[in-house]
Design goal:
The structure holds two protein chains of two kinds. By secondary structure, chain A is mainly beta. Chain A has strands at residues 10-11, 16-22, 26-28, 47-54, 59-64, 70-81, 85-95, 101-106, 112-115. Chain B is mostly beta strands. Classes of the chains: A mainly beta, B mainly beta.
Chain lengths: 136, 170
């Protein structure tokens, strides 16, 4: 058994981070000291919006939220074995108890599309494994 | 950290070289030694990883008589144990076939059966909560083995193939 995972990957995607917006504050994924906040640990009850932000600080996607909408968010990562590349897309949206949903997908080039359903036959748009706090 | 290059051969090492080449049989099929690979988390950065998928481009460009198989079971590997790891064994000019030789693997399929639109779900995760969210946590093993039939031609394979392991992180 040999450790062969040490070679750094080549990033082929845009880089985004999230912002959780509240009436009185905004929590960024990255703190000034480069440490990261936990998506799982966010207070969802009082969150009014969830943003994806690019490296220039520009908001790429805003997901408006209220108590009827359950937020979900994933960075979806593809590791290409044999080419040392890593491709990433971002999936963010909400679901409601009545079956309504909206999902925004930011592809590896930063292009944004929005959908009303997941697609299980898609490389990127299949449903995530929802966590307990994301369940409707 | 990045994913590795893999070279299927008749030696149990991760070296990318032209030694220990596979042997084309006069009849039937020969096998490489199987490889067991896994995802390893250096630093979770407060994130949780799950929902692993595995796929190829769906087209076998290795040429006639050559295929790459993936085991459909995922031997146990986690931050505390490598109990699913089994050394590949060699008999004559062939590695031992994974379903016959690996105690966890009971079925297999060509990696080219799995595409981005219809991936293999896995490898599974045997860490707490079936997620990866701490340094040194891993996925279970994915077992790969190359087949070479008597119909294969001699020489280097015409292309490299790229395999993809995909996961969710948040």
């Amino acid at each position: 058994m040999q450790e062969i995972h040490k070679k750094p990957y080549r990033e082929v995607s845009a880089n985004l981070s999230w912002q959780a917006v509240y009436s009185d504050k905004t929590i960024n994924q990255y703190n000034p000291d480069a440490s990261q906040n936990s998506y799982d640990g966010l207070n969802r009850e009082e969150m009014t919006a969830f943003n994806l932000v690019n490296d220039r600080g520009e908001v790429v996607v805003t997901v408006p939220l209220d108590l009827t909408k359950k937020l979900f968010y994933r960075m979806r990562v593809a590791l290409l074995v044999g080419s040392h590349c890593r491709e990433r897309i971002w999936l963010v949206g909400w679901r409601k108890a009545d079956g309504g949903m909206r999902v925004w997908v930011v592809d590896s080039k930063g292009k944004v599309k929005t959908y009303r359903n997941f697609r299980e036959d898609s490389q990127w748009l299949y449903a995530p494994e929802f966590r307990s706090f994301e369940e409707v | 950290m990045g994913p590795p290059n893999l070279r299927f051969k008749l030696a149990d090492n991760a070296t990318i070289d032209a030694n220990n080449k596979l042997v084309i049989p006069a009849a039937g099929t020969n096998y490489s030694l199987w490889k067991q690979i896994y995802l390893y988390c250096d630093n979770p950065d407060s994130h949780t990883l799950d929902n692993l998928k595995f796929y190829s481009d769906g087209t076998n460009s290795f040429g006639t008589g050559v295929d790459l198989q993936v085991g459909l079971q995922f031997p146990t590997k986690n931050s505390g144990a490598s109990t699913g790891y089994e050394l590949p064994t060699l008999t004559g000019d062939s590695g031992d076939e994974m379903v016959a030789g690996h105690t966890v693997i009971t079925s297999k399929a060509s990696v080219f059966d799995y595409t981005s639109a219809a991936p293999l779900t896995g490898p599974s995760i045997s860490e707490a909560g079936n997620v990866i969210n701490a340094a040194a946590e891993t996925s279970n093993y994915l077992v790969l083995q190359m087949d070479v039939a008597s119909t294969a031609g001699p020489g280097e394979l015409p292309v490299d193939e790229t395999l993809t392991i995909q996961y969710d992180e948040a």
